[in-house]
Amino acid sequence: MKGKVTFNISGSGSKSARLTIPAALIELMKITEDNREVEITYEDGKLVVEKVSEYVEGK
Fold first, then answer.
1. Where is the SpoVT-AbrB domain (predicted)?
2. Residue 29 resides in a domain
3. CATH number for the domain including 37?
């Protein structure tokens, strides 16, 4: 599956990037509006998105 990264520049000049994840993948991961915490890491040249099963303060 291919996608594109969207880049934004805020009014103060800071930059951010966003990546859209298809809804079907979000459903497979059981991510909901009420349970949407994820852990994002970079491993071996890949972005890895994992659902956080329980919110831990400070993470």
1. 11-57
2. yes
3. 2.10.260
